[in-house]
Amino acid sequence: GRILLAEDNELNQEIATAILEEAGFLVEVAKDGQTAVDMVKNSEPDYYRVVLMDVQMPVMGGYEATRTIRGLEDKKQASIPIVAMTANAFDEDRMEALDAGMNGYLVKPLDLTMLISALKSLDG
Q1: What is the rounded distance in angstroms from the CA atom of residue 43 to the CA atom of residue 116?
Q2: Model's pTM, two decimal places?
Q3: 20 to 30 A Cα–Cα from 62, which one of 1, 50, 68, 105?
């Protein structure tokens, strides 16, 4: 599937893209939350399998971007799976991600096993 990676740090973009592509995914990168919102809004429904959303980005952070996506008119776009990516592993960070409308939570650095597990849980 195709993954939208919303990540402002270039090194993190490169590492995550390499891991995801090695696992067989197509990856498109948004450098901030506003760009991620625009990419989802301008895509066909089901174009992206999931959005991996860094929570701290310039222009628009991951939580705000998620709330904006959840408010899109197109219900299919608005319900795209969004998984938070953060260096913070505290319970309150996990709760904030879920409260913002995210479907899951991954701690950086990205771990392929955890990522695959998260994607499988989204598929139900």
Answers
A1: 24
A2: 0.93
A3: 1
